[in-house]
Design a protein that fits this description.
- The protein is of the alpha/beta class and 90 residues long.
- It has a single domain, classed as Rossmann fold.
- It is 43% helix and 23% strand.
- The longest helix has 12 residues.
- The protein is globular.
């Protein structure tokens, strides 16, 4: 089966984002899952736990590569995150 989304970017790799990333990879719904975060520590942990296939601190370039973008940040940052990525989504 071909993955419906070749590349998925997940902004926020905590409990929700990490779980979504793991499910996408396990069910082969995405070939590539880019976990985007603010700290190297959280990204390292997501990578170590195989929640994503790769990680990035660069939200703009990662979002521009994605076929699907999932925002899994805290409620207080969702609005600002959507404004920041608006010009970079396909």
């Amino acid at each position: 089966m071909k993955a419906p989304w070749p590349t998925v970017a997940i902004i926020g790799v905590g409990l929700i984002g990490g779980s979504i990333g793991a499910a996408l990879l396990t069910r082969k719904l995405a070939r590539r899952v880019i976990g985007i975060g603010r700290t190297k520590t959280s990204l390292r942990e997501a990578s170590r736990r195989k929640l994503v296939s790769e990680t990035s601190l660069d939200i703009m370039s990662s979002v521009s590569e994605a076929d699907l973008v999932i925002v899994a940040t805290s409620l207080s940052t969702i609005s600002a995150t959507l404004e920041a990525i608006d010009a970079f989504v396909r």
